[in-house]
Write a structure and sequence with these properties.
With about 525 residues, the chain is of the alpha/beta class. The strands form eight sheets. The protein has an eight-stranded mixed beta sheet with strand order 13-12-11-14-15-24-26-27, sandwiched between helices. The chain is globular, with a radius of gyration of 23 Å. The relative contact order is 0.13. It comes from Streptomyces chartreusis.
Length: about 525
């Protein structure tokens, strides 16, 4: 008999919101968040309604600015930048360190906001916060040699990032950019994370960091946040369609840029026998429903190994746990241990369902479809943003699932007979961020891996974006501009010697670190 679940004590959206009002009353007002520009929290913009992907209930939406106000915010940020770039490094370091202490103090609230706003399970929400804090501390401890002989940019860094990692990608980048001597601007992602980012920026602003946080549509704000002459660098994380427009703009203007875009990350299987290792890693590859830039949604499998691959893959994928991230049997129980909760919204869930149905209709073979009855939900809750894991064999070339990243818990498998077919299938999206090749023969790996167009290629193990001194970038259409990670992140947002060529993927050159 199924157990009726309930919401964990103290984790309701109303509880989280009340805590925000208490911790940062300057940034939260009644039922809305404020924009931060000109060193002041502003009750401007048109607050849009928003709902949580967790259960469809109302949460705070982004207060969208118009283009004129966004330009004012950018001009004010330039004034901040001109003052901040002359602040001694030791003082900048002390203020960033104090911000990290404040983020640590409010770690659980930041994580709870991530659960409600973007649907992260508790374990992954905490990890997002911790990676931001720990990653920036690494820079605080070792910043001197990274900025030696370098200077801040001539204008602030504009950050436009997707919703999936507000802390470990966006806040992390902002704090390092500020540590390096730049004022920073961030646009809140349209699809979620506004309250979490608002709280993080409130804590940073209290310590005197030159932070600007604004909301608005990308189309309306791009003139200010991308093309404005005051902007010293554009840092973008998102999809290829939007990224292409940003890339065109920054190339036309000759502006410093870091554009991380999507790619179809692939996992190849060739002359492989270590199936136990593959079984162990499959559930981890579904973390956060594969809604991350380093997810692996495509397996390229040697045809004669397909039966052994399935024997390793299917038992693992059947263990996945999906459900409401805060639903427990007793109100004081620990948080549920889930692989993922909802996708970012009901519209994305419908898109994935439609893509899967269309692919099957055109010839793809369904190998696995998770059961809704196995998920853990509250009685009567809205489940329209949830997608059970799906695995398809041979999606047709006409399907988006054949060539693009689904950004959801949908795996596709392509069978190949030759090494040439293996490489062609692994390079289907004209560049990727990560890839993995599982093969028993080290010589085969050393021969094939350089021909896989991914910035990082693992040997039988997944690769990630990385932290601290690990570099990150992409090949082909998955990346434009300077590579980041380690000292490269600091180099990307500082000026070096005259004529310096940054490692990266630029229109006029590609330079590997």
């Amino acid at each position: 008999m199924a157990t009726t679940l309930t919401l964990k004590s103290g984790t309701a959206w109303a509880d989280a919101w009340q805590r925000c009002l208490t911790v940062a009353p300057e940034a939260f007002r009644d039922d809305r968040v404020l924009n931060l520009w000109n060193s002041t929290w502003q009750a401007d913009g048109r607050a849009l309604p928003a709902t949580s992907p967790v259960d469809g209930s109302p949460i705070a939406g982004p207060p969208r600015l118009d283009a004129d106000t966004a330009h004012q915010a950018v001009r004010a940020s330039l004034d901040q930048h001109r003052a901040w770039r002359h602040i001694p490094l030791e003082e900048r370091r002390a203020r960033v360190a104090a911000t990290l202490d404040a983020l640590t103090q409010h770690r659980e609230l930041l994580a709870l906001l991530l659960v409600w706003e973007i649907g992260k399970p508790w374990r992954l929400a905490q990890a997002d916060v911790d990676r931001a804090i720990d990653g920036v501390r690494w820079y605080v401890d070792g910043i001197e040699p990274m900025v030696a002989g370098r200077a801040p940019l001539n204008g602030p860094v504009s950050n436009i990032a997707s919703w999936n990692y507000p802390m470990s990608v966006l806040v992390h980048a902002m704090l390092v950019q500020a540590l390096a001597g730049n004022a920073v601007i961030a646009k809140t992602p349209t699809d979620g994370g506004v309250a979490c980012l608002t709280l993080a920026c409130a804590l940073a602003a209290r310590e005197g960091l030159p932070v600007t946080l604004v909301s608005g549509s990308g189309g309306e704000l791009s003139q200010a946040l991308v093309r404005a002459p005051e902007i010293g660098c554009v840092s973008f994380v998102g999809g290829r369609d939007t990224g292409a427009a940003v890339a065109t703009a920054v190339a036309d203007l000759g502006k410093r840029h870091v554009l991380e875009q999507e790619g179809l990350n692939t996992w190849g299987i060739w002359n492989h026998t270590d199936w136990d290792s593959l079984t162990a890693v499959i559930p981890k590859l579904f973390d956060y429903g594969k809604q991350r830039c380093t997810a692996y949604p495509r397996f390229v499998v040697q045809r004669e190994l397909f039966d052994e691959f399935l024997a390793a893959y299917l038992p693992a994928v059947r263990t996945l746990k999906v459900g409401h991230p805060l639903a427990v049997e007793q109100r004081d129980d620990p948080y549920p241990q889930l692989d993922f909760g909802p996708v970012i919204n009901a519209a994305k869930a419908k898109e994935l369902h439609d893509q899967v149905a269309e692919a099957i209709d055109r010839g793809a073979v369904p190998l696995h479809r998770g059961e809704v009855s196995d998920a853990g939900f509250l009685p009567g809750q809205d489940t329209s943003a949830y997608v059970q894991p799906v695995t398809l064999l041979n999606p047709p070339p006409s399907s988006p699932l054949h060539h693009a990243e689904p950004f959801g818990p949908v795996d596709t498998i392509v069978l190949v007979d030759t090494e040439a077919e293996l490489l062609a299938a692994m390079n289907a999206s004209n560049g990727a961020l990560v890839a993995t090749l599982s093969t028993d023969d080290p010589a085969t790996y050393e021969r094939l891996a350089p021909q896989i167009r991914a910035f990082k290629v693992g040997h039988g193990k997944p690769r990630s974006r990385g932290d601290r001194d690990e570099l990150f970038g992409g090949f082909g259409a998955s990346w434009r501009g300077a590579f980041v990670g380690g000292e490269l992140l600091v180099r990307a947002v500082t000026q070096g010697p005259a004529g310096e060529r940054l490692p990266g993927n630029f229109p006029e050159y590609q330079l590997l670190p």
